[in-house]
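Q: What would this complex look like in 3D?
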Amino acid sequence: MRISRYFLYIAILIILLTLPFYTGVYFLNVMDIILIYIALALSWDMLLRSGQISFGVAGLFGVGGYAAVLLNLNTGMNPLISIVMGGLAAGILAWLVGMAVLQLRGMYFAIVTLALAEIFRVIIRNLPDLTGGPEGTVLPSAIFAGNSTKTYWLAIAVAVVSVIASELFRRTRIHFALTSIRNDEIVAKSSGIDVFKYLVFIFVITSAIQGMTGGAYAHIYGFVSPEGSFSVDFTLLPIAMALLGGMHSTWGPVVGAVVLGVVSEFLKLQIPYGHLLVYGLIIVITILFFPQGILGTVGQRLKNRQRLRGSP
Amino acid sequence: MIVLKTENVTRYFGGLMALNGVNIEFRENEILGIIGPNGAGKTTFINVVAGIYLPTEGKIFFNGQDISELPAHKRCRLGIGRTFQLVRPLPGLSLLENIMVGSLFGKGLGQREARKQAEELCEFLGLSEITRDITRMTALEIKKMEIAHAMATQPKLLFLDEVMAGLNSDETTQMIDLVRKICSRGITIGIVEHVMRVIRELTDRVVVLDWGEIIAEGPYGEVSNDPKVVAAYLGEEN
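A: Here is my prediction, written as structure tokens for the whole assembly.
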């Protein structure tokens, strides 16, 4: 069972990796976006597993993007390494911020993260010498000279890193710690869990993933700008995707990102600028009628059926 | 030998004094009952000893070490375990995994050893079907799971906070035997309970709290006839 499952993963990965050989540039561009959103939705969900809601994904995404682009431009650093450094920068920033604000919980923490994203944007906007100010910074050339196959593989790498991180978090003691903390912090503390340490750790890791993703995104498109890189889309869409697909899992956010990514691409063609309206509707319907998301609801149905049949 | 000693422990919540100069000693391998009317400070006492609250004044010594300022998770690792009045199993984890949390973090075991220990504890406590859905357990099973969770941290001192609440007479008898078995493993037990039969049958000594102060201390037989205790529970006669 387990071996066949790994075969399935490898088969899917091979199909994904070979897509450029039998599809077109447009398709790959759509896939890039979906893969980027998979990483963001997953990292947002990973923090949610500790019970903390972040509205600051766009902030760390933007910081990572700026760090990657500026390092590459000013120091001539290899763009791939600069993407990793973008993740590192976001991680360090999250550590500094987390040490200060992770005493807060729930809505208070969420609001602080929302403010942070805005603060990063304002700071970057007002440092024109370093960041290019409101106009942003354009790279002389996108990564891999804009080769759509290679940029697509880069996007796959980013998504795979976050899937692996998510699965590691689900299979190790981290899973037990985060579930305990989410459920009841007092019980968690009384079981010997260093709650603060785990919250800082998960915040740093998820922020680093968001920063790395931002770095990849910036290099794929070859520019960063305060409005583009810190767009509220990068906060709201990952949340919508994780909710739609199913929270607290690896495959829920992935499914959500694929479904919403495809839907939004279709809607953009049908009703330009109206697609956000449909997004909002999808989120409301999900929360009202399928609070466990697509995967959670399907899983529950299957379980109920088994129960009706009387099997264990 | 004294396992835990509190010296003049006082705890305020704003203007409310929940504990007032409480001195309690836990002797090795005894079962100490902590009783008192609702709001007497019993659970607050456990919370202060377990590190959920720090004492406003006073000191707490565990095996001679001053732990007054230590955070809860470090006290757990030192060997202070506890159950909770309102049991909240962790959703998304099986019964066994719920118990494993204690060994994983309280004792720093790896997942494999933690699983093994959790299985042993289930057997010890008479919990079967250990992979079952935690949302469909009986009151007794939930209480046992809670005890297993606390025992998985391998405590030297274990607080049981109203573990008999909601159990019927047979189940209570079963639980009393179980607590004895736990004690015979060399664990010192502090038990908070409203069911007097439990206190009578189990405890070596009893401490009675009222309004955050100790009003009586001694074997159950003596304490239960103390006029101050009777007054605290039943109200004073005019």
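A: To summarize the key features: The mean pLDDT of chain B is 91. The interface with chain A takes residues 50-52, 71-73, 76-77, 81-82, 84, 88, 90-93, 97, 100-102, 104-108, 111, 149-150, 153 of chain B (CB under 8 Å).
Q: Very helpful, thank you.
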